[in-house]
Structures
1.
Amino acid sequence: MGNGTGIGRVRGLGSAKHGGKHWIDQRLTAVGNLLLTSWLVISLLVLPNMEHETVAAWLAQPSVAVPMILMLISIFWHVRLGLQVLIEDYVHEDGNKFAVLTILNFYVLGAAAFGIFMVAKHAFTGAPA
Amino acid sequence: MAQNPNRPISPHLGVYKWGPHMAISIMHRATGFVLATAGMITLLWWIYAIASGPEAYASFQTYVVSAGAEATTLQTGTNWFFRLVALGVTWSFFQHFFSGIRHLLMDMGAGYELTTNKTWSLLVFIAAVTATGITALLVASRYMGN
């Protein structure tokens, strides 16, 4: 086994055994996004207007808050997988790649937690008048 | 990893003639990035504004949607900025949406014949622009009349 080139270092080690998970997760969340964003677009078109009273009462219903939370999970999971591939393809320097991937993970988890918390708080405490 | 810059490398993007399938591939990445950043941050701001009450919602509307007749120059400016962003995000959404359906179909093994592949690619572009136009007209007729 060589130690000079990348292929020389990994040759003979076998696969890491989780190569397919990233790919299948991306497709799973893609289908989730198709269904849930279609739901959001149709729901917004069906609303009579976009006044605060209307959308606040709409978002507080369990039948809206739950799919909204699921949509945030599905989208941000998909964002993490998708932008990870972009970064791995276009950021070549190891240190920069590590830094940008860290920022991506912080952004995705932070933004998803913020959105889910806001929807849950709104649904649990009721629509402010 | 140390690399010899003069090493032989395989032909890359520059040597191929551009076609719809190449354009749609790079567009899927670009629109994905737009949706992940501008799209999701605006959506989260909107959810935050709904959950935080009428004043936060009014602030969102003032800067993003329309500041009404007594708008300051800054507000009119941000309104038009966000209208352009909204148009870009809406188109990105439909482009990524239809392009994503194409990818899922291709994952099943369909659509690799040259003419079929070209037709699907062109259909995605047409569908995305059409859906964006319909959405923009709907929103304009419902919310920008007054």
Note: The mean pLDDT of chain B is 89.
2.
Amino acid sequence: MPFKGYVEISVEGCKGCGLCVIHCPTECLALNMSDTNSYSLHYAYLKEPDKCIACQNCSIICPDAAITVYKKIA
Amino acid sequence: MKEGYELIYKRPKTLLDKRMHYCPGCFHSTMHKLLMEVVEELDIQDRTVGICPVGCSVFAYDYMDVDMQEAAHGRAAAVATGIKRMLPDRIVFSYQGDGDLAAIGTAETLHACNRGENFTFIFINNGIYGMTGGQMAPTTLENQKTSTSPYGRNSATAGMPMKMAEIVATFEKVYYVERVSCNTPANTRKARKAIKKSFEYQMQSRGTSFIEVASNCPSGWKCTPIESLDWIKDQVLPYYPLGVLKDLGKEEVK
């Protein structure tokens, strides 16, 4: 059984490249197309928190180190 | 932080809390992050010296919280040689792009490798001169369109793309050569391991280590960051295959 986790993505740190979105195995991340940060970029956010398994794929691929990953204590 | 959760990954403290000037999706920033993660993991922040090149990563000293030295275009290998010889207990890495290491600085690079200078090359190969507007570089792929080769690189006049990792692997004193990429999480983890291994070899004074990164340039290639990953997978990696090209430490174990 995979771990349950959640991620925090820095809104101002994200550049909206979308690499985390395409590499998320459970497709729980998405780009926020209805809002932008102060650089006018659509930032990534945790769309479906229930699906996150704390695999760290998003945090390792994120070029700008904008993602912090947490794992649920069993 | 949420109740009942523990922290498993956060931005390394050695990477300054500053917005990097790189384009969205650029592997320069990924490599900065991986380098600083390794520096934090090995706890060598106070004795690491980096050499900045000329190119997109010319401001790398603004982001990495270690000692950094700027070098003239292409001469990072020569500067790194000097620093490593004067301060042999430091961990020295030169961080260079393909216009820097493979074009103007080929002589410095090859001679530093031939002498077996004990430092690490981090070679970011995106096949283009990214900072100046996407001109053709020695590492541009055959038939790849750039702003100075609008009909594609013609190998009859411009030659074939240079395989720097293969070239330096032929030198006897080069200890460790690996080509990595950051196009998938698995490859990024391998890149991190390669950096760690090269720093460990350097601490044991084994010789030159050379890490080539098959990188992207979404702005120079005129595509989105996600399309640039497809280009790497379909076009770049068949010509520049990933993997360990030379590892004398591994042969010793056998």
Note: DSSP finds two helices and four strands in chain A.
